[in-house]
Amino acid sequence: MSLRSLVNQLDLCSINTATLGHRLPVEQTLELIARAGFGAIAPWRRDMEGRDLRKVGRQLRDSGLKVNAYCRSTYLTAQDSDGFKKSLLDNGNAIKEAAELQADCFVMVVGGLPEGSKDIAGARAQVTEGISLLREQARSHGIALALEPLHPMYAADRSCLSTLEQALDLCEQIEPQGFDSLGVAVDVYHCWWDPKLHGQIERAGMQQRILGLHVSDWLVPTRDMLLDRGMMGDGVIDLQGIRHSVEAAGYRGPIEVEIFSRDRWWTLEEEHVLKTCAQRLQEVC
Amino acid sequence: MSLRSLVNQLDLCSINTATLGHRLPVEQTLELIARAGFGAIAPWRRDMEGRDLRKVGRQLRDSGLKVNAYCRSTYLTAQDSDGFKKSLLDNGNAIKEAAELQADCFVMVVGGLPEGSKDIAGARAQVTEGISLLREQARSHGIALALEPLHPMYAADRSCLSTLEQALDLCEQIEPQGFDSLGVAVDVYHCWWDPKLHGQIERAGMQQRILGLHVSDWLVPTRDMLLDRGMMGDGVIDLQGIRHSVEAAGYRGPIEVEIFSRDRWWTLEEEHVLKTCAQRLQEVC
Predict the structure, then answer these.
(1) Chain B residues lying within 8 Å of A236, measured CB to CB
(2) Residue A3 lies in a domain
């Protein structure tokens, strides 16, 4: 399967609202994204605070935007069973919101080590249990869960799920019969370094588990571990190579731009950021 | 095999000179390390600049310190074949220095992407070729090469060798008959997050390829990607768990402290740092 051309095909592309820094109300954000020609949006829960979700959902559909993903889970890892239950409840609510917005999937960032813990195996066991329980709720709402492995530099404080291989092992453990409601989001920022990346993308594809492809870039130097992602083309990631593997593995969903960039892209006007995203998607992705 | 006790056993422990910030001349550094009761030292090439290595070697032996490792290779990854050859020459010289110092091994940090490159597979191929060539030189000097996978956050600019699994694959590719001169250094800072860590330590041990165990800690938050490592016990790494696996896999070499800490440990007096290392090694490692 050859690489889809993105030239004049922004309808194949999505903007994750974090890319715009959550500076505008979601109603305005979605208008800007639709007007810039993108086919989809991946909003965050924080965008929906105080909103009537049915109304926002209607506005999204009226604007022609697909909601390819809803971001994201509350961390599953917790110090005690009360914390764990609380997280399950909260994630259960988020799954309902995702259904209300007719999102294709709900993105799971699983959490790192609970405060004071050095037990990463324990944290991972908690994640397995939590995903397994939430999957039932997601199924009943017709929402898929996209497990997003984060870069290993976030293992302590954001995600003890660190590689695509680990995420797929988890999917197979919970869904041994093949894909039903559990898949993965491939974010180039988190997994570009992985020597097993292309093989694991192929594995994910064979199971129809690729639920998203997120693009941005890895800057050299990276000045902040969280908020210094680069615009596509400004860093060292082989974006076309990774997209090639993901599409060869059968993925036909949108290419989603997700850039956390406090000191650069979040300081610039939203229209300018969207224009740059559009240009780079067509030129370097 | 049970965990070796380090209580009153600092002779089992080594100080990597980077831990002291390279602020003193090596002659003074080694005296301080020996006087503090440590059994070994891992010096850097920069410590030896302008020195007569035979003289330093003699002083090391007189002080009772073993040289468990010599740090470290020039990056193998280069933009062109001239750069690659230059790196091989330089590393060849370093191997001779390691032999002069009677070091047990020479530590290989392989390099990231060459300037301007996005081809990580190409960089890895260069590394394979370079290691293969340097191994011949190391053999002829009776020095082992310790491949040190670095944390994936350094994949772009320091090491495209990112996991223990990848390092062992490389060892097996170059030395398919089993260990001869090629092994790995397990640095907890670089690999604590890896879901495959304990399995790969076991694999390394079965092949007698574990040539070093480096300790420090991962701080939360980490304020600098290079120079904010923690003292053992101040972070989230399960140090005893990892040492347990490494020793169960047959490793009997020294536990080496390697801490890069610009804003904390490198601002404190060397004697104080060494005292703290000694204490933490006995209490939390």
Answers:
(1) 113, 117-118, 156
(2) no
